[in-house]
Amino acid sequence: MDTPQPSGTTKRRITLDLDRPLLTWGARPTVTIDGVGHPAQWGTGTWAVADDGSTRIGVSCFNRLWRFGAASSTVGDADGFAYRSGLLPLGAGRLTTRRTTD
After folding, report:
1. How far is CA 3 from CA 6, 36, 38, 87, in A?
2. Residue 89 per-residue DSSP state
3. CA 11 vs CA 26, 39, 65, 95, 96: distances in Å
4. Average pLDDT, the chain
5. CA atoms of 74 and 63, how far apart (whole Å)
6. Sign (positive/negative) of CA torsion 65, 71, 77, 82?
7. CA atoms of 16 and 57, how far apart (whole Å)
8. How far apart are CA 60 and CA 29, in angstroms?
């Protein structure tokens, strides 16, 4: 298993907008970067990714009973994503590219 690089070794960051669904029943978002989960907060945040664009990111919602709204994408040349889960706490979410670099 590859060990993660120390903090500060990557120069590329992406912006991730996590839109809070209307009905969450206490759910919190979880962001996964190459399979490693990180707790997150609703709103806009930045995340460090590999410079080559091969990073796989995913977002899902989790409350104490179940996980829902899972969506994932490969970063590629994008520098921003927007996440929306479904209207109800079941089913898949959407992770869309917000903008790309020139």
Report:
1. 9, 12, 17, 38
2. S
3. 34, 22, 37, 23, 22
4. 84
5. 25
6. negative
7. 10
8. 6
Distance CA 67, CA 78 (A): 26
In whole angstroms, give the CA distance from residue 55 to residue 57.
Answer: 6
Say how many Å lie between the first and final Cα of the chain, rounded.
34
DSSP string, 2-67: PPPPPTT---EEEEEEEEPPS--TT-EEEEEETTEEEE--SEEEEEEE-TTS--EEEEEEE-SS-E
pLDDT in tens, 12-45: 899 999 988 777 778 899 999 998 999 999 999 9
Residues recorded for the chain: 102
